[in-house]
Design goal:
By secondary structure, the chain is an all-alpha fold. The chain contains seven helices and no strands. The radius of gyration is 32 Å and the shape is rod-shaped.
C-alpha cells in the first residue's frame, strides 16, 4: 500500500497527482504495446512464418501426404476445366482418373522440384556468361582475353 505522508500542502498534492498520472499513462502505453506484440504472434502471417517452414512442411507431408491428396483432387478439376474443356464425358472421366493417380504420386519434394525448374526457365541468363571465366579462375573483368 502506498504511503502519502509526504503530502503536506496543496502543491505537494498537485505534484503527487501529476506523478501518478504520468505513471498511469506510462503503464497504460506499456501494457498496450505488450498486448499488441503478444497479439501479433498469433496472426495468420506469424503462424505461417513460424510453422510453415519447408522443413516442417516436408515432415508433415511425409506422414500425411497432404500435397498428394490435394493434387489428386485439384489436378483433375484443373485439367478438365482448362485443357479438356470441350471434351466428351468419357475423355473427361479418363483424364480425371489418370490425373488423380498422377496427383497422388506427387509429394512436396516433387512439387518443389517442379516449381524450381519452372522458376529457372524465367530466371536471368547472365550467370552463364560469367561462369565461363570463373571456371578458369579468371575474373570476368580481366583484360587477358
Amino acid at each position: 500500500m502506498r504511503s502519502y505522508k509526504t503530502i503536506r500542502n496543496l502543491d505537494d498534492l498537485q505534484a503527487k497527482k501529476l506523478e501518478l498520472k504520468v505513471e498511469y499513462t506510462l503503464k497504460q502505453k506499456m501494457l498496450f504495446a505488450d498486448s499488441k506484440s503478444y497479439a501479433k504472434q498469433f496472426t495468420l502471417g506469424a503462424l505461417i512464418k513460424k510453422y510453415a517452414t519447408p522443413n516442417n512442411l516436408f515432415k508433415v507431408d511425409d506422414k500425411l501426404n497432404i500435397s498428394g491428396t490435394a493434387m489428386s483432387l485439384l489436378l483433375p478439376m484443373f485439367m478438365n476445366k482448362t485443357l479438356f474443356r470441350g471434351a466428351g464425358f468419357l475423355t473427361k472421366a479418363a483424364v480425371g482418373l489418370v490425373s488423380g493417380k498422377v496427383g497422388k504420386s506427387l509429394d512436396a519434394e516433387h512439387l518443389s522440384a517442379i516449381f524450381n525448374s519452372v522458376k529457372g526457365w524465367f530466371g536471368k541468363k547472365k550467370e552463364k556468361k560469367d561462369k565461363k571465366f570463373i571456371d578458369y579462375g579468371i575474373p570476368p573483368d580481366s583484360e587477358t582475353f
